[in-house]
Amino acid sequence: MSLSRTYQAFLFDMDGTLITSTAAAERVWTRWAARHGLDAATFVPTIHGVRAADTIRRQKLPGVDVEAETAWVERGEIEDLEGVAPIPGAVDFVRRLPSERWAVVTSATMALASARMRAAGIEPPKIMITAEDVTRGKPDPAGYRLAAERLGVDVAECLLFEDAEAGIKAGEAAGADVVVITAAWTHSLETTHPTTADYADLRLEVDAAGALTIQG
User: Which single residue of 56, 63, 117, 190 has CA 20 to 30 Å from 181?
Assistant: First the structure.
């Protein structure tokens, strides 16, 4: 990884980036796939980084109530928090950030995001952009642009932390720098962006004005 620049804010994806919840999510989605006669081995790898409703809608299943099915998945994911844990180094890393200098942009709902972050020992930030806040989820950049706006900074002056293809594309479309966290990967992803396994090797400095400098 090669990264050395000062930013006005950091924007984080959640699942796979700040926390690991892959096993829990895949358990729920595997059950959902079985309910609808889908091949879980083919289907489940496609769920990551996008909103549940968008995942369900993509299947084009006849007669499916997308809202009801999304609620079913959300209930299952909120109830199943076994194995949810922080990415190594993430808890200490975000604790060092000024509260007005970071946000989470996730494809999860607010209820699910809050439950998972607290289960992982990470207090949710003041600014959380969730599935309810945008009409188009990742890879659309709307969520990241909205987070920057609510923080009062230019998205081009933000560093985005991502792990999934949809989120990386959202960051690129937003015009921000992206660093890719690989700790929770279950399969490799080719990317031209800097990558790091976790937060242990990242050096962070916060100046008197709150600007963030990261090296790694």
Answer: 56
Q: Do 152 and 74 fall within a single domain?
A: no
Residue that is written with structure tokens 């990470």 in the block: 122
pTM across the whole model = 0.88
d(CA 150, CA 49): 22
CA distance 104 to 14: 6
| 35 phi, psi to nearest 5 deg | -60, -25
Q: Which two three-digit tokens encode residue 111?
A: 């209820």
In the chain, the number of structural domains is 2
Smallest Cα–Cα separation from 101: which of 6, 198, 216?
6
Give the residue from 79, 67, 61, 63 showing the smallest Cα distance to 24: 79
**For the segment 113-127, what is each residue's pLDDT rounded down to a tens digit?**
999 999 999 999 999
Residues forming the active site: 13, 15
Same domain, 116 and 70: no
pLDDT tens string 4-14: 789 999 999 99
Structural domain boundaries, residue 175:
4-20+85-215
Tokens of 180: 């890719």
Q: Which residue has the tokens 């949710």?
A: 124
Structure tokens at 107: 């494809």
Residue 66 sits at φ, ψ, to 5 deg, of -60, -40
Q: Answer yes or no: do 140 and 199 share one domain.
A: yes
Question: If you ran DSSP here, which 8-state letter would residue 132 be given?
Answer: G
Determine contact, residues 174/144, Cβ cutoff 8 Å: yes
CA proximity to 13, closest of 114, 134, 129: 129
